[in-house]
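Write out the 3D structure for:
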Amino acid sequence: MMRLTTILALFFYGVVLSQKTIQDVECVSRIGGTRLVTLLSDNSLWWSAADDSWEQISKNGLPNDKKIVSAHLYLKYGGLSGKSTLIAVLEDSTLWWFNENQWELVKNITVEPGSNIKIMKPYVKFGGMGFATPETRFFMLRSDNTLWWATPEDNYKKIDLGGLPPNVEITHISTYQKFGMMGSSETRFVVSLADSSIWWYADGSQWNKIDMQGLPAGYKVKNMITYLKMGMVNEGRLVIQLDNNTIWWKSVQDKGWRALDMAGLPNDQKIKSIDIYQKFSISGETRLIALYEDNSVWWYADKQGWKKYELKNLLN
């Protein structure tokens, strides 16, 4: 009897180990539809196809002895269109592009011994004529609590932390472009700290604290993202997930935060991560993505509420 119990225990333990989980989801909108990319617990990468099925991404070119820590999908603009671009961070803090079914090392980005990339966010810096001269850049938080940015052609440039509270851990980072006159743009870096305060920074200024008015007492920020809401008036927006499983947003111009309607979402599961994108269409509809701990993925849009993504063959 004891032997049978042991065999059953080992069987169910093996089943649990063999079950894949979604570690993270990121998304972009482009001409032809929305694309999502996921990193699974078995360290495989997948992205969504046009028919809503999922395709595994080749690891051709990546070192076999290094795990993928994170994968990021962003839109690299060219003229009036955009190309979804995939980049991965490995456990040795190297960055790799995915191009034509082959991974290529971003050769000029290196990290000194004793430090590593904790969080990396790719973004596109627009030139003096708006979309005419876009440039890929990387915004990074290192394990020593320092912030850096880089281009694929240059190594890191350190960001001044003047104005931030000393000795407080940075927990999340994000960035967006603020457009000015004649198509010029200014990068806004945004961070949240371990004390759940949120701060923004631009070149030539110190860090400025963002008003947290309207949030519930005792709130704790679990996730934070920013984006540029494009339309008749372009405006930066912030979205946060609190530890009570609610999502809140605000425009950088507003003082108060607004709670997002959570009707239709699972009540017995926690949100694991969030992402946001603006639909590549005339309407420019904003969509929010939420990954739950039960491996379900949901999207939200104004006037449509929450809808569940079809994952089809992703976890089979």
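Helices lie at 2-18.
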